[in-house]
Design brief:
seven-stranded mixed sheet; alpha/beta; UDP N-Acetylglucosamine Acyltransferase, domain 1
Length: about 200
């Protein structure tokens, strides 16, 4: 019965999200334009409650290379690039911005987390041209399976499997599997399976 109710909920979300999927998907597929995708994602982000949750789930399932029907994407959160890959049973809190990344299964992303598209998405070496006119370089950031990114953390480098990132941390360098990291810039302060370490995760 529970499985049936979930399937009906997802179907309802898909039907409700169809205008947004068409609005974003046609320009994306035909012309490679992300502008309509971005505006549709922003519009869906502010739909509250269960209707918003199931519509966002259907939207990203339909447009991303990988996104599953068990995605939880809370109010105000946006997956900013249609190239992102989201694993199974991923939970993303409110007001988070998810860039060009790959998120593994069972990851928990806290509220107000930013996953950037690499450390240096914009080039700014030339002083003769304004920064806005210098092309960006987007890099895929990988978040391993079974990770927990604490509230307000900023991630711009790969996070290994099974890691915990403390609240407010800035991950500027790749982290090893099972690491517990915190701070700005984030440094390893422990490891899962080793000595117990307390870290604020939000």
């Amino acid at each position: 019965m529970r499985r049936l109710m979930k399937a009906l909920s997802n179907l309802t979300g898909l039907i409700a999200a169809l205008p947004f999927i068409a609005w974003a998907g046609l320009p994306l597929r035909l012309f490679g334009s992300e502008r309509s995708y971005s505006s549709a994602a922003c519009a869906l982000a502010i739909i509250p409650g269960l209707p918003g949750l199931v519509m966002r789930r259907a939207f990203y399932h339909s447009l991303l290379p990988e996104s599953h029907w068990d995605l939880h994407l809370d109010f105000g959160s946006i997956i900013t690039h249609p190239t992102a890959r989201i694993g199974k049973r991923v939970w993303i809190g409110a007001y988070s911005l998810i860039g060009h990344c790959r998120i593994g299964d069972d990851a928990i992303i806290g509220s107000r987390v930013s996953i950037l598209s690499g450390r240096y998405p914009h080039r700014f070496s030339s002083v003769e041209r304004c920064i806005a006119e210098q092309p960006g370089v987007f890099q895929e950031v990988s978040i391993g399976a079974d990770c927990w990114l604490g509230e307000g953390s900023v991630v711009m480098a790969d996070v290994g499997q099974g890691c915990v990132v403390g609240a407010g941390s800035v991950v500027a360098k790749p982290t090893a599997d099972l690491s517990v990291v915190a701070g700005n810039p984030a440094r390893q302060i422990g490891a899962r399976g080793g000595k117990q370490v307390e870290v604020a995760s939000g």
